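S1.2 Input.
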Amino acid sequence: MENSLTKIAQTLKDAKHKTKAKNANESDVKVQLIYAFNGTGKTRLSREFKSLLSTKLDEDTELELSETIGKNYLYYNAFTEDLFYWDNDLENDTKPKLKIHPNTFTNWILERQGQDRNIISNFQHYTDKKLTPHFNEEYSIKDKNGDNITVGAFTEITFSYERGNDEISDNIKISKGEESNFVWSVFNSLLEQVIDMLNVAEPSDRETDKFNQLEYVFIDDPVSSLDDNRLIELAVNLAQLIKKSQSDLKFIITTHNPLFYNVLHNEFKKDKFKKYFLKKNGDGQLDLVSQKSDSPFSYHLFLKTEIETAIATDQVKKYHFNYLRNILEKTSTFLGYEDWAELISEITEGDPAPYIKRIINISSHSKHSGEEIAELLDDDKRVLNYLLKGLKEKYRFR
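S1.3 Output.
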């Protein structure tokens, strides 16, 4: 796995764009867009990419975003959220708050740049106007020994909700999806600041020199909990922000969401960008498959091809049932069915649909990563082949 990740990361780092003019020099690619299923290795790829750059971090720390100020990379991934953690106030059960580990990143964006209002505005825009974050001011408390401890400003966030009838619910604990939206809003505010600063051509005229060495921004699945309308809006806004960048800054964006991928594709199709699939093979190794077509990603067709190839080469694994379930879910939504299992009843035409649904459910929801490439029984493989063939014939997939 590590060998394939290193090779892929090096490919992304060395990416060049060939112009059509004869004898023209190659230029760096500004944007690289990668689609991959959840669990493929997008977050590991972002870490491997970072390790190739000239400035490396202490391997003991997971709070890596806090060390990016003054470095040549900036990235958002699952570890970014590790900067934030909940104090659930278990003793009193009255005031849960989201706390921030000490780090230069949030200190700079909140205290030095005063971006708290922009963060709140961005967060409310993608969640709910009535859901309001509140950053703390500096205060003192006594520890168990009675000694005074100073809690710094902008190190804790509480949330309130206005219900529309002059009633306000204070100190609520937001959902995991809302928390992800909040963290992205913090990162997005930083990214806006960085792009504006680097657009100042003369380094000596910039507000700070902390980002003069910045070369890459790696963004892994910004927000996965938005509805389609908000997701489209976020993709368009992110694309416009990147297009606003006039420096040599390069961007790598990975996602498991086909809609997010396609919107970004359409936004960047006139620019110098490359697009890929990050593909996990049966042996666990990864391939970065370059996409040459100018068309957006046909998600269901890609999944269908992957299953067909696995069947033809007798390399069917449990995760191929997950691919089939994805196709069934997308198709049922498109056709207006309430449940993808309704498609099975039509495909099987009297066969025991509940039994087949159970096979799909069991095989597409593994609890342990080792089960992803576990061998299947011959009967299971025949069911997969039978369902895919019926799906293609019934709904005329090409």
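S1.4 Remarks. Residues 300-395 form one domain.
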